[in-house]
Specification:
Elements: H1 3-14, H2 18-30, H3 43-49, E1 54-59, H4 79-84, E2 87-95, H5 114-120, H6 126-129, H7 131-148, E3 153-155, H8 159-171, E4 176-183, H9 193-200, E5 203-206, H10 230-242, E6 245-246, H11 253-262, E7 268-272, H12 286-294, E8 298-301, H13 305-308, H14 313-327, E9 332-334, H15 351-360, H16 365-383
Parallel strand pairs: 1-2, 2-4, 3-4, 4-5, 5-6, 7-8, 8-9
């Protein structure tokens, strides 16, 4: 073990008592649910929900020490619960760095709370000091779960994969699928060649920023909140040439404006709210909503309180109704942020409650089919590599 790794091993040894209890404690503290199952939507909503092709554009489940293939009693997402919820495709996003004492309005990148989590959860030593290795480790976790699933969890890397899977799922219910994202291009560690490394590891979506400014672009929660850098412009071009989806969640207003103008493909905002119903720095302005829609992209509306200024499915539907009135139903999607250290109104098996709330908000069944996954499927078909 190198001296550098020995220095990291010291606090690990001091915290040995947390190694067994720590991950479970973190899970219970950070990924809470306001309403426990079983959930009781209306008969009409449940019947409709079972016909939908549901796509959720954001979950941070890979961050936690849970087996995706086992039904958990904590957190929000795992394969058995995704199947029960009729989720066809779940985006799993890797998280590699988070400032301590996080703020919606202003953070720098000098501190990091994920380092402690890598120690408590006994991640490989390479991840203790490398953001790139943290992303690759989480990518491997997903690949291994796919390999152990006996075909019940399918990895989507191309438009062809998606088409084959959706046809198979029509013939064989009880399947779900995943695609992989990276939350914040700081995981590139300043080297754009890592775009290709991430692509080879299965990454098909990446955001320029998370909660702080990077050498790629400004964050809505950063200090400068600037736009895309020259390196950021090159990253967008490289990503889209490879068939990787640009995710503008957490982007500053300037970064979002510049990235949507530069983009040659549909972009997404994987998990957000809208300022028209919930006015804070986390959420999208009307101008930002229009810019994403102009690319042909999709805005994934989240389920947690900061996103929707409410603690139930009706608040989520209210945000979707506002956005639909501004940019049209064709540009809306679901971006839960499940397992993202948020308190959710329900875990994933409660999604029929959202279908019920959308019906109550006056959306038609065809419109709900688009919002709950049809629009995201369209963008995946357009933006992913063909093969």
């Amino acid at each position: 073990m190198s001296k550098k790794h020995l220095l990291w091993a010291i606090p690990l040894a001091l915290g040995a008592g947390l190694l067994l209890a720590g991950p479970g404690i973190a899970e219970r503290n950070f990924n809470r649910v306001l309403m426990k199952p079983p959930y009781r939507p209306s008969a009409r909503a449940l019947a409709l929900h079972r016909t939908l092709t549901i796509v959720d554009l954001h979950a941070d489940t890979l961050l936690w020490n849970r087996d995706l293939l086992h039904r958990g009693s904590s957190g929000h997402v795992d394969v058995p619960r995704l199947v029960e919820a009729n989720v066809a495709v779940q985006a799993f996003t890797t998280v590699t760095k988070m400032p301590r004492g996080i703020s919606l309005d202003r953070n720098d990148g000098r501190s990091d709370s994920i380092t402690l989590l890598t120690l408590v959860e006994t991640w490989p030593p390479a991840t203790w000091t490398s953001l790139k290795e943290r992303a690759l480790y989480q990518a491997r976790k997903l690949d291994q779960a796919v390999g152990r699933s006996g075909g019940k969890l399918v990895m989507i890397r191309s438009a062809s994969d998606l088409a084959t899977y959706l046809e198979r799922r029509r013939q064989m219910p009880g399947l779900t699928a995943a695609f992989l994202g990276v939350e914040g291009a700081h995981a590139l560690e300043g080297d754009l060649d890592n775009v290709d490394r991430f692509y080879e590891s299965g990454v098909r979506m990446m955001a320029p920023t998370h909660f702080f400014d990077t050498d790629i672009g400004g964050s809505a929660h950063g200090v400068e909140k600037g736009g895309l850098t020259e390196k950021g412009r090159e990253m967008v071009k490289r990503m889209q040439a490879r068939g990787m989806i640009l995710d503008l969640a957490h982007a500053s207003a300037k970064t979002l404006t510049e990235a949507t103008a530069l983009s040659s493909r549909p972009v997404v905002v994987s998990h957000t709210g809208v300022r028209g119903t919930c006015d804070n720095n986390r959420n999208l302005s009307d101008e930002a909503l229009r810019a994403v829609a102009k690319t042909g992209g999709v805005v994934g509306i989240g389920v947690w309180e900061t996103a929707v200024c409410g603690r139930d499915a009706a608040a989520i539907a209210r945000s979707m109704r506002y956005a639909a009135g501004l940019i049209g139903v064709d540009h809306l999607g679901l971006g839960s942020d499940f397992d993202g250290a948020v308190t959710a109104p329900f875990e994933v098996t409660g999604l029929p409650l959202l279908t019920d709330a959308l019906l109550a908000a006056g959306f038609g069944e065809d419109e709900i089919a688009k919002i709950m996954g049809g629009n995201a499927v369209r963008v995946l078909r357009q933006a992913l590599p063909k093969e």
